[in-house]
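Sequence only, no structure available. Ideas?
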Amino acid sequence: MIRTGGIDLGGTKIEAQKFDADWHVSDKRRIETPTTYLELVAAVVDQICWLQKENPNLPVGIAAAGLSNPNSGTWISANLPANGMPFVQDVAKAAGGRYTWLNDCRAFTQAEAVFGAGQSKGTIVGLVLGTGIAGGVSIDGALINKGDGQSGEFGHMPISGAIIAAYNLPILKCGCGRFGCYETYGSGPGMERLAKHILGRDLTSREIEFGRSNPDISRVWEIWCEINAALILTIMTTIDPRTIVLGGGLSKIPGIIEALESALKRVAWRELTLPSIRLGTRGETAAALGAAYEAYHV
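Reply:
I predicted one. Tokens follow.
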């Protein structure tokens, strides 16, 4: 029996997953993300129709890169050809139904809070480190921010002035249009900018990952970890999570948990109890699972 359906809508692929009564994936279907808006709407509708083929009333949740502007209803995303468009409304109109939408990082957080590394852990924060930085907050398994708010856009909080001063970092313009966001140095591209500033060399994040036996590259890695530890400290002082669950491509770097924990001890107040930092366990199913779970409980 199919309980619900979830769609993971990213910049390169749209994957629909069917979940059974035990929340296991019973079937899935992946297509490429189109490059034009009308084709994108049609592709999402096609995946919805595939999910609901045997049950037109099947709850469907969609985890997408970006978020909906609560005032205008338009979509905000750098990774989808839907920026500034009434994406949610157009999909609903074309598919003939109402669907639950979550930002993909919020959906990751929901999946990990209910089924993964944050299970039964009180307040947890999902922190996705990749080409950008974002996440979400869950309290006792309930996501505090749904589809149209900025809570969880951790990468767009202003970077610590102490970090800027300590390493004489230039304040860079972020993709969001503002200056000095954590994402400018704490993301994958940010790691590369850091290497350029500190070493004067063009290094990819992969080259930094595999070159950490070199003292100079190791220093770049340590500073990058300290930047993200400062971000975690900011999250701690506002949300006080018991657990931080890491996701995204950079979370797969060997030793990242230990490196972040060590850096966090250096930047945090000594009296603070530090949160547990864990790797996400739901893998590539996380975004679709979190969205499907949310749709089922609407």
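The chain has a mean pLDDT of 94.
Hope that gets you unstuck.
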